[in-house]
């Protein structure tokens, strides 16, 4: 009789631990998406933790130093490294994304200090959530250093 009580108690504790692990991992999970994927699934991912990558469109950058509010648009870039290399490398893919008006785009709002590397054709990797208004609200903003790919297209690097 005591063995059954211990077995039932042990199973109950095990079930509780499994539930807590699953619940916490779902709450903290992030989905990595491209701008195209985000635009297609806009309503389905509203409010969820997301990581999105895109090419910054320099003409859309606006920064309010009083409120530390940064707004800009990003254009779609492929998420697959093999596809990026097949299209001529990261510098070329970012350049084509920015100059092609037919590429899907999203608007981004980030509150925080303006990053030094923020410029036209930089790759932004953002963590945040999509709002009901169709704007991506970034909590984190990481930029790939443009000097890392200056050698690939030197005429682009010298024009910044």
Tally of strands: 6
Order of helices and strands: HEHHEEHHEEEH
Strand order of the largest sheet: 2-3-4-6-5
Low-confidence stretches: 153-160
CATH class descriptor name? Mainly Beta
Could you walk me through the main structural features you see in this protein, from its secondary elements to its overall organization?
The chain is of the alpha/beta class and 160 residues long. The chain has helices spanning 2-27, 35-40, 42-45, 81-86, 90-99, 154-158, and strands spanning 31-34, 50-64, 69-75, 105-111, 123-130, 135-143. Strands 2-3-4-6-5 form a five-stranded mixed barrel.
Q: What does this entry show, briefly?
A:
The protein has 6 helices and 6 strands, in the order H-E-H-H-E-E-H-H-E-E-E-H.
Task: Give me the secondary-structure topology.
Elements: H1 2-27, E1 31-34, H2 35-40, H3 42-45, E2 50-64, E3 69-75, H4 81-86, H5 90-99, E4 105-111, E5 123-130, E6 135-143, H6 154-158
Parallel strand pairs: 1-2, 4-6
Antiparallel strand pairs: 2-3, 2-5, 3-4, 5-6
Write a concise keyword list for the protein shown above:
alpha/beta; OB fold (Dihydrolipoamide Acetyltransferase, E2P); five-stranded mixed barrel; 160 residues
């Amino acid at each position: 009789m005591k063995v059954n009580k211990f077995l039932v108690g042990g199973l109950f504790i095990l079930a509780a631990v499994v539930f807590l692990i699953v619940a916490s991992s779902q709450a903290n999970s992030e989905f990595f998406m491209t701008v195209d994927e985000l635009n297609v699934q806009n309503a389905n991912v509203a409010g969820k933790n997301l990581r999105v990558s895109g090419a910054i469109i320099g003409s859309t950058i606006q920064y309010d130093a009083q409120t530390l509010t940064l707004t800009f648009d990003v254009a779609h870039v492929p998420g697959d490294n093999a596809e990026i290399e097949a299209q001529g490398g990261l510098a070329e893919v970012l350049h084509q994304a920015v100059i092609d008006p037919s590429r899907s785009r999203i608007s981004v709002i980030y509150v925080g200090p303006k990053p030094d590397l923020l410029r036209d054709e930089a790759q932004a990797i953002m963590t945040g959530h999509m709002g009901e208004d169709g704007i991506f609200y970034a909590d984190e903003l990481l930029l790939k250093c443009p000097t890392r790919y200056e050698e690939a297209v030197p005429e682009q690097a010298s024009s910044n």
